[in-house]
Amino acid sequence: MSDISELLKGVYDLHVHTAPSAHARYLDDVELLLLMDQAGMGGATIKSHYECTASRAMIANKYFHTKAKLYGCLSLNQTVGGWNPSAVDFALQMGTKNIFAPTNHAKSFMERSKSDEARYKIRCREPLTLLDENGAIRPEVFEILDLVRLYDAILQTGHLSETEGALLAKEALSRHIRTVITHPDSPSTRYPMELQLELAKAGAMIDISYRSVQMNRIGIEELVSHVHALSPERCIVTTDLGQKSVGFSPVEGYGKMIELLLQNGINEKEIRIMTAENPGQLLGVS
Q1: Domains of the chain and CATH, by start
Q2: Would you say 64 and 34 are in contact if contact means Cβ atoms under 8 Å apart?
Q3: Is 127 in contact with 110 (CB distance < 8 Å)?
Q4: pLDDT tens per residue across span 25-73
Q5: What does 84-112 look like in DSSP terms, one character per residue?
């Protein structure tokens, strides 16, 4: 029988929500860092929909001498100017590891989301799209991709629609940028399996999200079938947790996800690939 506590050692979670936040969160940055360190985890990306978290990660890492580390991110919503190369340049110079395409301010997400809190928590003057009025990728997007490549950071597709997310991913991959397809099994960002396979074959990592299972957006059996089809080498496990309403920490959620994967046919070696090796390589730490 597998020891979940042993399997948590050295893993990374590239999608965790912490306080301070405009949304109610289960724990703050430091509480997450200490819990991860106690569990022997490698670290996590602290995600905000509305601000760059690189400074928060930097301060926590400096004053709490843990083996686990926090990594910053920037989500390209209206609070940072949307598709704003200046905001991306600053974030990357501050050590940000993950750049997310628009999330809660993505036009497709705002149209598809059934959560009034998610849609209207922060005022959005103009919902964001990848394409301009002529159906072409906005020129500032190419500038952002060049910056992500320059700093060898990770691009995540955020809450763009599957059509726009795939277009962005293909452009990023053509520039040899580390690219993650963000929770492709969520209703607001659902990628058909054929498209997931196409993007994985092109070099993208596919996000296998515990939140999607926890919210019954996809069954664990179907998710495991996706892992087998894609191969663990093209997948990363994330939790997308931190919501106060969930009632337990992202660290506990990560353990629950590992347990579910084990119970449904994923072996320990495959879990190690998706939880430690792949995300570690994306972060440039393994």
Answers
A1: 4-283 (3.20.20.140)
A2: yes
A3: yes
A4: 999 999 999 999 999 999 999 999 999 999 999 999 999 999 999 999 9
A5: -HHHHHHHHHTT--EEEPP-TTBHHHHHH
